[in-house]
TrEMBL record:
This is Bifunctional 3-(3-hydroxy-phenyl)propionate/3-hydroxycinnamic acid hydroxylase. Residues 3-336 form the FAD-binding domain. Keywords: Oxidoreductase. NCBIfam families: PRK06183.1-3 (NF004829). PANTHER family: 3-(3-HYDROXY-PHENYL)PROPIONATE/3-HYDROXYCINNAMIC ACID HYDROXYLASE (PTHR43476), FAD-BINDING MONOOXYGENASE (PTHR43476:SF3). InterPro entries: FAD-bd (IPR002938), FAD/NAD-bd_sf (IPR036188), PheA/TfdB_FAD_monoxygenase (IPR050631). It holds the Pfam family FAD_binding_3.
Length: 472
């Protein structure tokens, strides 16, 4: 079998390769850099996405290099608290804290180490993809060794474009960018302080139209600041902006960079055997912390489908077609939420901003808003199976199987599964994929009662990515 060629070895590309290799699919991973990018970028993953890291085999190691997020605090321009939403540090429905703060280089090192453990993955650094021939049927990826200039051709079973916002693969398949009408300039500063700052451990959002800002702690003495910049504003004094937060504490700047936060989708995510994932397919403003999470969801959604396609005589086109059909509306919904959150938290920069700030202070105190502000549950996927819960994720408690305690996903294995508290309906059993794992959920298997409360006497069919396919 020709390998799946993965262009880009960032978190999304590495995750896709690991998921495929664990299913027996050989992968060739190409990246411009031989080592992980050393500077911090993404800083947050929710519990649904940490569950994906569990599937990759690195969740426990990730928990050792991350810290639970404590919630969200909204401040006015004078740093007075307008509203505070505290998050429970205990595990959520998927077994992990609902917010997890981390430093991206730490995650990338874990992913690279996991790739090195899998013989089905070949990694080539200092490699630049410059062409994809015959993308519709039998792709051949052409890449250049940046060290010696030699060119190589790699026949591919499929090509995954995980090469970021300026994706070469996206350009090669002619996928245009769809502007979702959001662009803001921000200054992002990461630093290590000489001592712990006297600050609450959650995310601070300054809702000030004169200088909206975000502040968060990533780890021991590790902090991030983000400052909104006006259009056409000259360079700002970052030291002056930080001074208000530091209170005289010394800081070593790890990274200082200006970004334009955008909202965009690729016009199409697939051309034959070529697929786009992560920032190559979408970009979102950072206000709900779902940029990297969206890319890892892409990888999880596509990997099992591509593995099934390659294992099926004649392929499984319907499965491959469902990748963009499921993921694009999901990402669009999250981008829409991020834009609304950004508007609410930054207060805007026009003449109505002062009025909105007054309204905002009242709105944040509405009953029920705390749940919305802290909700980590992502929207259901559209067009998945049938039933009210179709397209949602099942919870993941600890279960006891054959006398051993484990996570539910470990008990289910890598394929399709069926959960029931009695006898599954014959009509539902007929829909099962051959080899699906069947679990009879009893009090002995489910000591916490989580699955039994969730099932409520029903039978649930789960896909390999733990998305509910059908309930009866």
């Amino acid at each position: 079998m020709d390998p799946v060629v993965v262009a880009g070895a960032g978190p999304v590309g590495a995750a896709a390769a690991i998921l495929l290799a664990q299913r027996g699919v050989p992968c060739l991973v190409l990246d411009r850099y031989a080592e992980p990018y050393p500077l911090p970028r993404a800083v947050h993953l929710d519990d649904e996405v940490v569950r994906i890291l569990q599937e990759l085999g690195i969740a426990e190691a990730f928990l050792r290099v991350s810290r639970p997020g404590l919630g969200l605090r909204l401040l006015d321009g004078r740093h007075r608290v307008m509203a505070e939403f505290r998050r429970d540090e205990s595990a959520g429905p998927h077994g992990y804290p609902q917010a997890n703060m981390f430093d991206q280089p730490d995650l990338e090192r874990l992913l690279r180490a996991r790739m090195a453990e899998l013989p089905a993955i070949e990694f080539v650094g200092a490699a630049e993809v410059f062409a994809v021939d015959r993308p519709q049927t039998a792709p051949v990826v052409r890449y250049r060794n940046l060290a010696d200039g030699r060119e190589h051709a790699a026949p591919a079973a499929a090509v995954l474009g995980c090469d970021g916002a300026n994706s070469t693969v996206r350009e090669l398949i002619g996928a245009r960018r769809v502007d979702l009408r959001f662009a803001e300039r921000w200054l992002v500063v990461d630093g290590v302080c000489d001592e712990d700052l006297d600050a609450w451990g959650g995310v601070h959002q300054v809702c000030d139209p004169r200088r909206a800002a975000t502040f968060m702690q990533l780890g021991p003495r590790r902090y991030r600041w983000e400052f909104r910049l006006f259009d056409h504003e000259p360079p700002v004094d970052a030291d002056a902006l930080l001074a208000r937060w530091l209170g005289g504490v010394g800081v070593r700047i790890v990274r200082r960079a200006e970004y334009t936060f955008r909202a965009e989708l690729a016009g199409r995510w697939r051309a034959g055997r070529v697929f786009l994932l992560g920032d190559a397919a979408h970009q979102t403003p950072p206000f709900i912390g779902q940029g990297l999470g969206a890319g890892l969801r892409d990888a999880y959604n596509l990997a099992w489908k591509l593995a099934a396609d390659l294992a099926t005589p004649g392929g499984a086109e319907a499965l491959l077609d469902s990748y963009e059909r499921e993921r694009a509306p999901h990402v669009r919904a999250q981008i829409r939420l991020a834009k609304v959150a950004g508007w609410a938290m930054t207060g805007g920069q026009d003449r109505a901003a002062a009025v909105r700030r007054v309204v905002l202070g009242a709105v944040w105190r509405l009953p029920g808003l705390k749940g919305l502000a802290l909700r980590s549950t992502s929207p259901p996927l559209r067009g998945v199976g049938r039933g009210r819960r179709a397209g949602t994720l099942c919870p993941q408690p600890r279960v006891v199987l054959d006398g051993r305690e484990m996570w539910l996903d470990e008990a289910l294995g890598p394929g399709w599964a069926i959960l029931h508290t009695g006898v599954p309906p014959a009509t539902l059993r007929d829909q099962l994929v051959a080899g699906a794992r069947e679990l009879h959920v009893t009090p002995a298997l489910d000591p916490s009662g989580t699955l039994r409360r969730w099932l409520r006497g029903r039978t649930a069919v789960l896909r390999p990515d733990r998305v509910v396919h059908a309930v009866a």
